[in-house]
Amino acid sequence: MKNRNFLKIMVTALVLSFLVAGPAVSAEKKSLVFATASATGSYYVLGGGLCMTFEQNIPEIKEAIAQVTAGSVENVRLINKGEVDLALANAVVVGEAYQGSKRFKGGLKNIQSLSWAQVNTQHYIVAKNSGITSLADLKGKRVSVGSPGSGTAFNFKSIMDTAGISLKALNLQFLNNTAAIDAFKDGRLDCIGVAGNMPASTVYSLSMTRPIEIISIDQKIIDKLHDQLPGYVKVKIPAGTYKGMDKDAYTFGAVNTILSNSNVSADIIYKILKTIKAKKEWLTENIHLGFSEFKFDPSVSKVAPLHPGAVRFYKELGLLK
């Protein structure tokens, strides 16, 4: 309870302090902008906690601002253009962005990796006793899966493609978390997709106001998705995680990464990684449990090349030669 109350205080402070975007890191003014996602999601809390930690522990950083965005897809584009300095993003999105795909023609070559971050569990929420128990049951239903350009929307398309279900078979909408939850409460949506570190605070709050269930996804579909895109992993949401949830739900999660623009100085990135590692336990206990899943491993270079500052950091840890 103490940690939960502290988190509420911190989130309020972060909303007041970090919402306004500022200029990128430069030699003249060392301000830093960190792209997150919706202000009601875990990306924003994680990014805000990191920004506060950077300001307090890295003298070269005058200010650090958590910027609200649509999410992963927008974040990699902002990083590539140098409009932000750091970002959280879905590893699958990052890999596609760097390598190039229909969505990212030619590849985004100014994005560089720093570390692995948390796993965002995909929750597909329906009203209790709605009769919707599988992805196939969503055909013809009113479904919102996050803002356009969000990792949540990207993940939903990935799982539906793998399941062989056309998005055209759904009454699909792209609302942010707040708008989607309001519409769901009012009965204007049959299903909403929410991504977040489990237990997701927005899902927990919703379960306290309306009886809900979470769709279980066929494990064969998740296995196939993982084989195609290893950045997706199996996740079990245990019974009791959310109010009224009386049985386990099986879904998938997206592994996340911390990214940087290639023009941010190597010294700043090195100090950022040192700070995150040193403060990881405090951040986990006081800001968000998602920090416990941050991993410092140069294997993150599989999705996009390491920033030179990250190379220095991993060499110091003895993980690179």
What would you say this structure looks like, in words?
Helix 1 (2-18) packs across helix 2, helix 2 packs across helix 9 and helix 5 (151-163) packs across helix 8 (219-228). With 321 residues, the protein is of the alpha/beta class. It contains ten helices and ten strands. It has helices at 2-18, 42-57, 72-81, 91-99, 151-163, 177-185, 201-207, 219-228, 266-286, 308-316; strands at 31-35, 63-67, 86-90, 111-127, 142-144, 171-173, 191-196, 212-214, 232-237, 249-261. It folds into two domains: 2-118 and 257-316, 3-Layer(aba) Sandwich (D-Maltodextrin-Binding Protein, domain 2); 120-254, D-Maltodextrin-Binding Protein, domain 2. Helix 2 (42-57) links the parallel strand 1 and strand 2. It starts with a helix and ends in a 5-residue tail after the last helix. Residues 1-29 have low confidence and may be disordered. 38% of the residues lie in helices and 21% in strands. Strands 1, 2, 3, 4, 5, 6, 7, 8, 9 and 10 form a ten-stranded mixed β-sheet that branches.
Keywords:
321 residues; alpha/beta; D-Maltodextrin-Binding Protein, domain 2
Write the layout of secondary structure elements.
Layout: H1 2-18, E1 31-35, H2 42-57, E2 63-67, H3 72-81, E3 86-90, H4 91-99, E4 111-127, E5 142-144, H5 151-163, E6 171-173, H6 177-185, E7 191-196, H7 201-207, E8 212-214, H8 219-228, E9 232-237, E10 249-261, H9 266-286, H10 308-316
Parallel strand pairs: 1-2, 1-3, 5-6, 5-7
Antiparallel strand pairs: 3-10, 4-7, 4-8, 4-10, 9-10
Helix pairs in contact: 1-2, 2-9, 5-8, 9-10
